[in-house]
Design brief:
- By secondary structure, this protein is mainly α.
- The chain has one domain (2-111).
- The protein has 6 helices and 2 strands; from the N terminus they run αβααααβα.
- Strands 1-2 form a two-stranded antiparallel ribbon.
- α1 crosses α6.
- It comes from Candidatus Curtissbacteria bacterium RIFCSPHIGHO2_12_FULL_38_9b.
């Protein structure tokens, strides 16, 4: 339970950091970032696997880089749903998706290190 809540808060912090540095990627408040992180988690759990399976051939052809395009489109779609979260185009969504992945990767390695067996 604690790990899930910590992951949610870390994702919200990451969204807030990306909104600070990526032009065209805007979040009104930290509460909005928490809501975006929650909606993004739900979308990643239910919708993303279906889209990933449907686009598997192009993802394989691009050696996995199309996954960033999928993430960007999902984040861009979430900006249409959540009030206070604005993305002005596909390029900020793509840069934001890459930045979210990179920052989340670094933070999770620091906070939740991989334990040796």
């Amino acid at each position: 339970m604690f790990k899930t809540l910590a992951n949610w808060v870390v994702s919200a912090i990451t969204i807030f950091i990306v909104a600070t540095y990526v032009p065209g990627f805007e979040v009104d408040s930290f509460l909005t970032a928490l809501i975006v992180a929650l909606v993004l988690g739900i979308v990643n759990a239910f919708i993303k696997p279906i889209i990933t399976i449907l686009t598997l051939p192009i993802t394989i052809l691009t050696l996995g880089l199309f996954a960033f395009v999928i993430n960007a489109l999902l984040i861009w779609g979430i900006s249409a749903i959540v009030a206070g979260f604005t993305i002005t185009g596909f390029v900020p969504a793509l840069i934001g998706a890459i930045a979210l992945w990179l920052i989340n990767l670094i933070i999770h390695f620091v906070i939740f290190p991989i334990k040796a067996a």
